[in-house]
Design a protein that fits this description.
Strand content: 15-25%
Structural class: alpha/beta
Oligomer: single chain
Subcellular location: Cytoplasm
Pathway: Amino-acid biosynthesis; L-arginine biosynthesis; N(2)-acetyl-L-ornithine from L-glutamate: step 4/4
CATH topology of the largest domain: Aspartate Aminotransferase, domain 2
CATH superfamily of the largest domain: Type I PLP-dependent aspartate aminotransferase-like (Major domain)
Helix content: 25-40%
Strand order of the largest sheet: 4-12-11-10-7-5-6
Catalytic activity: N(2)-acetyl-L-ornithine + 2-oxoglutarate = N-acetyl-L-glutamate 5-semialdehyde + L-glutamate
Radius of gyration: 21 Å
InterPro entries: AcOrn/SuccOrn_fam, Aminotrans_3, Aminotrans_3_PPA_site, Class-III_PLP-dep_AT, PyrdxlP-dep_Trfase, PyrdxlP-dep_Trfase_major, PyrdxlP-dep_Trfase_small
Number of strands: 17
Protein name: Acetylornithine aminotransferase
Distance between the termini: 48 Å
C-alpha cells in the first residue's frame, strides 16, 4: 500500500553503526531505524540470543508461562520504578495499553468519569485510533472519523495551561521526556518535576511515553531518571528489542492490579523469541560502564553539533535534544527533507522530525570516532544545502 515515501535504498547487511546496500555503498546509520537498533546492527550477542531461541521455541502464547518474559520483566522491575510489566509488540500498543490502564485505575477507584488524559502539543504517541487522538496532530487525524474521546492538549512546557486544563474528568498526564517526532524537544527537568507534583496534588496518574527516550538513549536507562522522579505507568518499545518487535507497559502495583485476566492481552506480546532479544539488549545496556559511555559520546556529539551550527548559520538555527536523541533545527528556507537527502548523498542516514528538525538517533554503541565521522558528513551536508548567496558572501 502507498503508505510510505521510501528512499531508493535497500540495505543488504549491517555491522555496528554501518549499513551496506546491495551494490556496495556504505552508510553511517544515525537514524538506527528511528531509535530502534539500539545496540547497532548484527550485534553478536543479540544475533546469538535470537538464533539460539529460534532453534528452541519461538512462540507459545500467553496461555502458558514464558520464562524468558518472566526474566525480562524481573530485570525491568529491578531497574525501574515499576512493580510489574505487560509485554506487547510496539510503541503504539504500549501507549494504547497505558491509556487503558489509566482509565481502568480510576474506574476501579469509583470514578469512571475520570477518563481524560492531558497530552501536549507536538506529541507523538502512535498510529492507532486512540494514540492518534492522544497525539492530536490534525494532519494525522484527517479522514479517520471523529477522534477518540478523552484527550486534551496543552502547550508543551506550560504549567499554567496544564493546571487550567485539569478538572473533574482528568485521569492522567501523558508526556514524552523528549518529544522525538515533535521536533526533538526535551522537557526541562524542572517541568517533569512539576508534572509529578501536579499529578500528586490532583490525584492524577503520571504516564510517561519513553518509547523513543528509554532503554539508555538519554545516558540513563530511562530519561525521567535525570529529573529524579518516578511515573505511575510508563511505555517502552523501539530500542527495547534492538530491532526485534517488542513493547512494554511498566506500572506500579496500584495501577497494574486492575489489569486482571480478560482486561487486556496480546497474541505475540512477550513471546519467547521477543523476550530473548529483550534480555540480550538489556545484557549489553546494563553492562558496567555502558551508559556512562553513552553519556560521554552524546556530550561529545552535542559539542560538535553546536560548533557545526556556529559555522553554518545560513543552514542551522540551533541544536536541541538530549543524550543520543539530538536534532539540528534548520532555517525556514532549508527543509529537513532537503537536508536529509543531502546527508544520504554524503553517506549519512538521519531522520526528519517536526518543526523542520533533522533528527540524529544513532545506535548507542557508537564511538567518539564515529560521532566525529558523522559530524564530518554533516559538515559536507551543510555545504550542499547552503544557499548560493551565503556561499558567495563567505568567499
Amino acid at each position: 500500500m502507498p503508505t510510505y515515501n521510501r528512499a531508493d535504498l535497500a540495505f543488504e547487511r549491517g555491522e555496528g553503526a554501518w549499513l551496506w546496500t546491495g551494490d556496495g555503498r556504505r552508510f553511517l546509520d544515525f537514524g538506527s531505524g528511528i531509535a530502534t537498533a539500539s545496540i547497532g546492527h548484527a550485534h553478536p550477542h543479540l544475533v546469538q540470543a535470537i538464533a539460539e531461541q529460534a532453534a528452541r521455541v519461538m512462540h507459545t502464547s500467553n496461555l502458558y508461562r514464558i520464562p524468558q518474559a518472566e526474566r525480562l520483566a524481573a530485570r525491568l522491575v529491578e531497574t525501574s520504578f515499576a512493580d510489574s510489566v505487560f509485554f506487547c509488540n510496539s510503541g503504539a500498543e504500549a501507549n494504547e495499553g497505558m491509556i487503558k490502564a489509566v482509565r481502568k485505575y480510576h474506574a476501579e477507584q469509583g470514578h469512571p468519569e475520570r477518563f481524560v488524559t492531558i497530552c501536549f502539543e507536538g506529541a507523538f504517541h502512535g498510529r492507532t485510533l486512540a494514540t492518534l487522538a492522544a497525539t492530536g496532530n490534525e494532519k494525522y487525524l484527517a479522514g479517520f472519523g471523529p477522534p477518540v474521546q478523552g484527550f486534551k492538549h496543552v502547550p508543551f512546557g506550560n504549567m499554567n495551561a496544564l493546571r487550567d486544563a485539569i478538572d473533574g474528568t482528568t485521569a492522567a498526564i501523558m508526556v514524552e521526556p523528549i518529544q522525538g517526532e515533535g521536533g526533538v524537544r526535551p522537557a526541562s527537568l524542572e517541568f517533569l518535576r512539576q508534572l509529578r507534583a501536579a499529578a500528586d496534588e490532583f490525584g492524577l496518574l503520571l504516564a510517561l511515553d519513553e518509547v523513543q527516550t528509554g532503554m539508555g538513549r538519554s545516558g540513563k536507562l530511562w530519561a525521567h531518571q535525570w529529573a529524579g522522579i518516578e511515573p505511575d505507568v510508563m511505555s517502552s518499545a523501539k530500542g527495547i528489542g534492538g530491532g526485534f518487535p517488542l513493547g512494554a507497559i511498566l506500572a506500579k502495583e496500584r495501577v497494574a492490579q486492575y489489569l486482571k485476566p480478560g482486561t487486556h492481552g496480546s497474541t505475540y506480546g512477550g513471546n519467547p523469541l521477543a523476550c530473548a532479544a529483550g534480555n540480550a539488549v538489556l545484557d549489553v545496556i546494563l553492562a558496567p560502564g555502558f551508559l556512562d559511555g553513552v553519556d560521554r559520546v552524546a556530550r561529545h556529539l552535542w559539542r560538535g553539533m553546536l560548533d557545526l551550527a556556529h559555522r553554518h548559520p545560513a543552514v542551522v538555527e540551533g541544536v536541541q535534544g538530549a543524550g543520543l536523541l539530538l536534532g539540528l533545527k534548520l532555517r525556514p528556507e532549508i527543509s529537513n527533507g532537503e537536508m536529509q537527502n543531502a546527508a544520504v548523498a554524503e553517506g549519512l542516514l538521519t531522520v526528519a522530525a517536526g518543526m523542520n528538525v533533522l533528527r540524529l538517533a544513532p545506535p548507542l554503541i557508537i564511538t567518539e570516532a564515529e560521532a566525529d565521522e558523522a559530524l564530518s558528513l554533516l559538515e559536507r551536508t551543510c555545504l550542499r544545502c547552503t544557499p548560493s548567496q551565503a556561499r558567495d558572501a563567505a568567499k
